[in-house]
Amino acid sequence: MASNPAYRSRRVETLTLIVCLVVSMALLALPEKQRIRTADLLGMVLTSPYHRTVAFCRDISRVSRENDELRAEIAALRLQQQSAVRFRRDRDELRRALGLIDSAPATLVPCEVERRRVSSHASLVRISSAAPADWRRYQPVITTDGLVGRIHTVTGPETAWVELITSPGMAVSCELERTRLPGILHARGGDFDLTLIGRDEDVRVGDRVISSDIAMVFGEGEGASGSLPRGLPVGVVSEVSSPPEQLFKSVRVEPAASFTSLDVVFVITGTGEWLVAEEPETQDAPSAEGAGP
Question: Which class is 102-276 in CATH?
Protein backbone atom coordinates (compact mmCIF):
# COMPACT_ATOMS: atom_id res chain seq x y z
CA MET A 1 0.00 0.00 0.00
CA ALA A 2 1.41 3.35 -0.99
CA SER A 3 2.33 5.68 1.81
CA ASN A 4 0.48 8.96 2.35
CA PRO A 5 2.26 11.99 0.70
CA ALA A 6 1.32 14.24 3.61
CA TYR A 7 2.87 11.73 6.01
CA ARG A 8 6.09 11.69 3.97
CA SER A 9 6.23 15.52 3.98
CA ARG A 10 5.91 15.61 7.76
CA ARG A 11 8.67 13.03 8.08
CA VAL A 12 11.00 15.12 5.84
CA GLU A 13 10.27 18.25 7.86
CA THR A 14 10.92 16.41 11.12
CA LEU A 15 14.16 14.94 9.80
CA THR A 16 15.33 18.37 8.58
CA LEU A 17 14.55 19.91 11.95
CA ILE A 18 16.49 17.18 13.75
CA VAL A 19 19.51 17.69 11.44
CA CYS A 20 19.44 21.46 12.03
CA LEU A 21 19.26 20.93 15.81
CA VAL A 22 22.17 18.48 15.73
CA VAL A 23 24.30 20.87 13.62
CA SER A 24 23.43 23.78 15.92
CA MET A 25 24.35 21.80 19.05
CA ALA A 26 27.59 20.68 17.42
CA LEU A 27 28.48 24.27 16.54
CA LEU A 28 27.72 25.43 20.05
CA ALA A 29 29.96 22.68 21.45
CA LEU A 30 32.95 23.83 19.39
CA PRO A 31 35.46 26.41 20.63
CA GLU A 32 34.71 30.01 19.56
CA LYS A 33 37.37 30.29 16.77
CA GLN A 34 36.48 26.91 15.24
CA ARG A 35 32.79 27.82 15.52
CA ILE A 36 33.34 31.04 13.49
CA ARG A 37 35.40 29.20 10.85
CA THR A 38 32.83 26.46 10.53
CA ALA A 39 29.98 28.96 10.26
CA ASP A 40 31.83 30.85 7.46
CA LEU A 41 32.46 27.59 5.61
CA LEU A 42 28.81 26.53 5.88
CA GLY A 43 27.73 30.02 4.75
CA MET A 44 29.94 29.81 1.66
CA VAL A 45 28.72 26.34 0.80
CA LEU A 46 25.06 27.19 1.27
CA THR A 47 24.86 30.81 -0.09
CA SER A 48 27.55 30.84 -2.82
CA PRO A 49 25.38 29.03 -5.42
CA TYR A 50 22.61 31.56 -4.82
CA HIS A 51 24.92 34.55 -5.29
CA ARG A 52 26.49 32.98 -8.39
CA THR A 53 23.05 32.42 -9.88
CA VAL A 54 21.98 36.01 -9.18
CA ALA A 55 25.22 37.38 -10.71
CA PHE A 56 24.79 35.13 -13.76
CA CYS A 57 21.23 36.42 -14.32
CA ARG A 58 22.42 40.02 -14.00
CA ASP A 59 25.19 39.40 -16.54
CA ILE A 60 22.71 37.88 -18.97
CA SER A 61 20.43 40.90 -18.60
CA ARG A 62 23.36 43.33 -19.11
CA VAL A 63 24.62 41.49 -22.19
CA SER A 64 21.10 41.46 -23.64
CA ARG A 65 20.79 45.24 -23.18
CA GLU A 66 24.21 45.79 -24.76
CA ASN A 67 23.25 43.59 -27.71
CA ASP A 68 20.07 45.63 -28.23
CA GLU A 69 22.09 48.86 -28.15
CA LEU A 70 24.60 47.45 -30.64
CA ARG A 71 21.80 46.33 -32.96
CA ALA A 72 20.32 49.84 -32.84
CA GLU A 73 23.72 51.42 -33.58
CA ILE A 74 24.30 49.01 -36.47
CA ALA A 75 20.87 49.83 -37.90
CA ALA A 76 21.61 53.57 -37.63
CA LEU A 77 24.99 53.10 -39.34
CA ARG A 78 23.36 51.11 -42.13
CA LEU A 79 20.81 53.88 -42.64
CA GLN A 80 23.62 56.46 -42.74
CA GLN A 81 25.50 54.34 -45.25
CA GLN A 82 22.40 53.99 -47.43
CA SER A 83 21.83 57.76 -47.22
CA ALA A 84 25.44 58.43 -48.18
CA VAL A 85 25.16 56.08 -51.16
CA ARG A 86 21.91 57.76 -52.21
CA PHE A 87 23.54 61.21 -51.81
CA ARG A 88 26.48 60.20 -54.00
CA ARG A 89 24.19 58.65 -56.62
CA ASP A 90 22.01 61.78 -56.80
CA ARG A 91 25.12 63.97 -56.93
CA ASP A 92 26.60 61.95 -59.80
CA GLU A 93 23.31 62.03 -61.71
CA LEU A 94 23.11 65.77 -61.24
CA ARG A 95 26.68 66.29 -62.38
CA ARG A 96 25.94 64.27 -65.51
CA ALA A 97 22.84 66.37 -66.18
CA LEU A 98 24.74 69.65 -65.65
CA GLY A 99 28.24 70.14 -67.07
CA LEU A 100 31.15 72.28 -65.85
CA ILE A 101 33.26 74.39 -68.19
CA ASP A 102 35.72 75.80 -65.65
CA SER A 103 39.20 74.44 -64.98
CA ALA A 104 38.44 74.73 -61.25
CA PRO A 105 35.07 72.98 -61.20
CA ALA A 106 32.50 73.49 -58.53
CA THR A 107 31.59 70.60 -56.27
CA LEU A 108 28.28 69.39 -54.89
CA VAL A 109 27.88 68.81 -51.16
CA PRO A 110 24.89 66.52 -50.45
CA CYS A 111 22.83 67.61 -47.45
CA GLU A 112 19.73 66.42 -45.68
CA VAL A 113 16.88 68.80 -44.86
CA GLU A 114 16.20 68.66 -41.11
CA ARG A 115 13.56 71.30 -40.44
CA ARG A 116 11.69 74.23 -41.95
CA ARG A 117 11.03 77.74 -40.66
CA VAL A 118 8.51 79.97 -42.42
CA SER A 119 7.78 83.61 -41.57
CA SER A 120 6.21 86.57 -43.31
CA HIS A 121 9.67 87.68 -44.48
CA ALA A 122 11.49 84.49 -45.43
CA SER A 123 11.18 80.74 -45.92
CA LEU A 124 14.17 78.88 -44.48
CA VAL A 125 15.21 75.24 -44.17
CA ARG A 126 17.95 73.85 -41.97
CA ILE A 127 20.36 71.45 -43.71
CA SER A 128 23.12 69.17 -42.46
CA SER A 129 25.95 67.42 -44.28
CA ALA A 130 27.56 64.08 -43.44
CA ALA A 131 30.99 65.74 -43.11
CA PRO A 132 32.23 69.29 -42.41
CA ALA A 133 31.74 71.53 -45.45
CA ASP A 134 33.22 74.81 -46.62
CA TRP A 135 30.05 76.81 -45.95
CA ARG A 136 29.91 80.32 -47.38
CA ARG A 137 27.02 82.71 -47.31
CA TYR A 138 25.02 82.98 -50.55
CA GLN A 139 26.25 79.65 -51.92
CA PRO A 140 23.54 78.30 -54.27
CA VAL A 141 21.50 75.30 -53.16
CA ILE A 142 19.85 72.97 -55.67
CA THR A 143 18.06 69.65 -55.97
CA THR A 144 18.22 67.15 -58.80
CA ASP A 145 15.41 69.16 -60.42
CA GLY A 146 16.59 72.74 -60.07
CA LEU A 147 17.46 75.77 -57.94
CA VAL A 148 15.83 76.03 -54.51
CA GLY A 149 17.74 78.74 -52.64
CA ARG A 150 21.03 79.91 -51.18
CA ILE A 151 22.96 79.67 -47.92
CA HIS A 152 21.58 82.25 -45.50
CA THR A 153 23.24 81.54 -42.13
CA VAL A 154 26.09 79.18 -41.25
CA THR A 155 25.44 77.56 -37.85
CA GLY A 156 28.27 75.02 -37.71
CA PRO A 157 30.78 73.01 -39.73
CA GLU A 158 28.02 70.60 -40.78
CA THR A 159 24.83 72.69 -40.55
CA ALA A 160 23.43 75.83 -42.14
CA TRP A 161 20.16 77.63 -42.87
CA VAL A 162 19.05 77.98 -46.48
CA GLU A 163 16.77 80.77 -47.72
CA LEU A 164 14.42 79.44 -50.37
CA ILE A 165 13.65 81.36 -53.52
CA THR A 166 9.98 81.16 -52.49
CA SER A 167 10.66 83.80 -49.82
CA PRO A 168 8.51 86.93 -50.32
CA GLY A 169 11.56 89.21 -50.43
CA MET A 170 13.66 87.03 -52.73
CA ALA A 171 14.44 88.07 -56.31
CA VAL A 172 16.73 86.08 -58.60
CA SER A 173 18.37 87.17 -61.83
CA CYS A 174 17.36 84.70 -64.57
CA GLU A 175 17.19 84.37 -68.32
CA LEU A 176 15.25 82.42 -70.90
CA GLU A 177 17.36 79.58 -72.22
CA ARG A 178 16.04 79.79 -75.78
CA THR A 179 16.38 83.55 -76.37
CA ARG A 180 18.78 84.56 -73.57
CA LEU A 181 16.35 87.30 -72.52
CA PRO A 182 17.17 88.45 -68.96
CA GLY A 183 14.55 88.92 -66.27
CA ILE A 184 14.01 89.04 -62.52
CA LEU A 185 12.21 86.14 -60.83
CA HIS A 186 9.84 86.87 -57.93
CA ALA A 187 7.82 84.37 -55.89
CA ARG A 188 4.04 84.69 -56.35
CA GLY A 189 2.16 82.04 -54.40
CA GLY A 190 3.03 78.60 -55.69
CA ASP A 191 4.52 79.93 -58.93
CA PHE A 192 6.85 82.77 -59.92
CA ASP A 193 6.69 85.92 -62.00
CA LEU A 194 9.47 86.72 -64.45
CA THR A 195 9.50 90.50 -64.68
CA LEU A 196 11.22 93.14 -66.85
CA ILE A 197 10.47 91.27 -70.09
CA GLY A 198 9.42 93.72 -72.80
CA ARG A 199 5.91 93.31 -74.22
CA ASP A 200 7.31 92.79 -77.74
CA GLU A 201 9.89 90.15 -76.77
CA ASP A 202 9.64 86.53 -77.92
CA VAL A 203 8.46 84.46 -74.94
CA ARG A 204 6.60 81.18 -75.32
CA VAL A 205 4.89 78.77 -72.96
CA GLY A 206 7.30 75.92 -72.29
CA ASP A 207 10.48 78.07 -72.46
CA ARG A 208 12.98 76.97 -69.84
CA VAL A 209 14.17 79.56 -67.32
CA ILE A 210 17.74 79.25 -66.03
CA SER A 211 19.86 81.26 -63.61
CA SER A 212 21.82 84.18 -65.00
CA ASP A 213 25.34 85.27 -64.04
CA ILE A 214 24.24 88.89 -63.63
CA ALA A 215 25.04 90.02 -60.09
CA MET A 216 21.51 90.42 -58.81
CA VAL A 217 20.19 88.22 -56.02
CA PHE A 218 18.07 90.00 -53.45
CA GLY A 219 17.02 88.61 -50.11
CA GLU A 220 15.52 89.53 -46.80
CA GLY A 221 16.24 93.23 -46.30
CA GLU A 222 19.43 93.08 -48.36
CA GLY A 223 20.80 94.64 -51.46
CA ALA A 224 22.56 92.89 -54.28
CA SER A 225 24.59 90.07 -52.81
CA GLY A 226 26.35 88.41 -55.69
CA SER A 227 25.42 86.24 -58.62
CA LEU A 228 24.55 82.61 -59.17
CA PRO A 229 26.36 80.29 -61.56
CA ARG A 230 24.75 80.58 -64.95
CA GLY A 231 22.69 77.67 -66.22
CA LEU A 232 20.98 76.29 -63.11
CA PRO A 233 17.43 75.15 -63.96
CA VAL A 234 14.85 77.41 -62.31
CA GLY A 235 11.54 76.65 -64.00
CA VAL A 236 9.38 76.60 -67.13
CA VAL A 237 7.19 79.36 -68.51
CA SER A 238 3.58 78.36 -67.87
CA GLU A 239 1.66 81.47 -68.91
CA VAL A 240 2.39 84.55 -71.04
CA SER A 241 0.26 87.64 -71.59
CA SER A 242 0.79 91.22 -72.80
CA PRO A 243 -1.53 93.63 -70.97
CA PRO A 244 -2.15 96.66 -73.22
CA GLU A 245 -1.63 99.17 -70.43
CA GLN A 246 1.79 97.80 -69.40
CA LEU A 247 5.27 98.06 -70.92
CA PHE A 248 6.29 94.54 -69.87
CA LYS A 249 4.87 91.09 -70.42
CA SER A 250 3.24 89.13 -67.64
CA VAL A 251 5.20 85.88 -67.51
CA ARG A 252 4.35 83.14 -65.03
CA VAL A 253 6.94 80.47 -64.29
CA GLU A 254 6.33 77.03 -62.82
CA PRO A 255 9.31 76.08 -60.60
CA ALA A 256 11.45 73.14 -61.64
CA ALA A 257 12.03 71.97 -58.06
CA SER A 258 9.37 70.94 -55.55
CA PHE A 259 9.41 73.02 -52.37
CA THR A 260 6.81 70.96 -50.52
CA SER A 261 8.81 67.73 -50.36
CA LEU A 262 12.41 68.85 -49.85
CA ASP A 263 14.41 65.90 -48.58
CA VAL A 264 17.91 66.04 -50.06
CA VAL A 265 19.60 69.16 -51.44
CA PHE A 266 23.06 69.95 -52.80
CA VAL A 267 25.18 72.98 -51.98
CA ILE A 268 27.41 74.21 -54.79
CA THR A 269 30.85 75.08 -53.45
CA GLY A 270 33.86 76.37 -55.31
CA THR A 271 33.82 78.04 -58.70
CA GLY A 272 32.45 76.95 -62.00
CA GLU A 273 29.82 77.77 -64.57
CA TRP A 274 26.97 75.33 -65.01
CA LEU A 275 25.55 74.49 -68.38
CA VAL A 276 22.09 73.16 -69.07
CA ALA A 277 22.17 70.21 -71.42
CA GLU A 278 21.16 71.32 -74.88
CA GLU A 279 18.11 69.78 -76.51
CA PRO A 280 19.17 67.24 -79.17
CA GLU A 281 18.78 68.55 -82.68
CA THR A 282 16.59 66.59 -85.04
CA GLN A 283 18.58 65.10 -87.84
CA ASP A 284 17.10 65.32 -91.33
CA ALA A 285 16.71 62.03 -93.13
CA PRO A 286 19.41 61.50 -95.78
CA SER A 287 18.23 62.24 -99.28
CA ALA A 288 18.01 59.53 -101.85
CA GLU A 289 20.10 61.55 -104.28
CA GLY A 290 23.60 60.31 -104.57
CA ALA A 291 22.81 57.14 -102.74
CA GLY A 292 24.47 54.04 -104.00
CA PRO A 293 22.56 51.12 -105.41
Answer: mainly beta
pLDDT tens column, 95-134: 666 654 444 456 788 899 998 988 777 889 999 998 888 8
Q: What is the pLDDT of residues 16-61, one digit of tens each?
A: 778 777 777 776 777 777 777 777 776 666 677 777 788 888 888 8
Could you state, in order of their start, the residue ranges of all structural domains in the chain? 10-100, 102-276
Which of 126, 122, 223, 124 shows the shortest CA–CA distance to 168? 122
